Please model this.
Amino acid sequence: MTVIDVHTHVFPRLGRNEGRMLADEAEPWLRVDGAGTGMMMCGDEEYRPVGEALWDPARRLADMDAAGVDVQAVSSTPLMFGYAAEPSRAADWCDLVNDRVLAFCAEAPGRLLPLCQVPLQDPALACEVASRAAAAGHRGVHIGNHVGDRNLDDEGITGFLAHCARIGLPVLAHPWDMLGGDRMRGHMLPWLSGMPAETQLSILGLMLSGAFERIPASLRLCFCHGGGSFAFLLGRAENAWHRRDIVRADSPRPPSEYVDRFHVDSAVFDPRALRLLIDVMGVERVMLGTDYPFPLGEEEPGATIRACPGLDDAERARLLGGNALDFFAPAEVPAATMPAT
Model:
């Protein structure tokens, strides 16, 4: 069976001068310290210690071989999004990052699938960057789940998602810049509590705003980290939609009728949680995702899937790779909507 990890990150070797293409201060760049270690940087500030698998394709491929992973979808680290920058400056930065991600993945074509990033703060410009990236060989686009106070149901962002549907570009949505930061000091609480809340907010926003009614059903959209807290709280949202007109004011259908509009990865780390996720989403809507190579990721790729109760071999094969093969399959797109070459 083919094993495909849809949620992995890269930070190409971008120096400080290159980071200043995006920002004059707090610019993202990678400091490589030697002996396989490095540091993600924001200007002068150290952001997070990292290992060479984040930037070295040879090390990554060795890890994949050791873990039995055939293919990874490779996306930039959210620190690199650049959504606060001036749009044209962010577009140039995204083009640079996208070129470096392509070069990284070119070390093992077919095993490393490049996902681009875009200046989502300007949806029209984001469409242009996404089209260029798709024409250059990117297999999907990696976006944050919001831009400032604009959620995914923002009119401009839904327009971008519709563009991705039209050009057949899959979308991986990742939580970042978590809400409630002032109350989540220490113990990595923004990652433990804020990320699931961000993803739940994004999914419900698309459902209850009616955004899914405006976005083509052909859009291939995946939320990281198992969809956050969505699966566990779907019943709460469903109950509210049926009982309160203010909840259903903009949504013609209850939340449960939109679960076929998106996928989630399997990064929930507990077979019981994964069982619930599959029951809510359907076995065809969950894909292996590990958050490699960060330390909060699944250390043994696919272990939670293999330990999940009630799955037969065919269902495990779908979760470990079959669903991702369909998700990232090249789309047949009408010539009029294909990116310019």
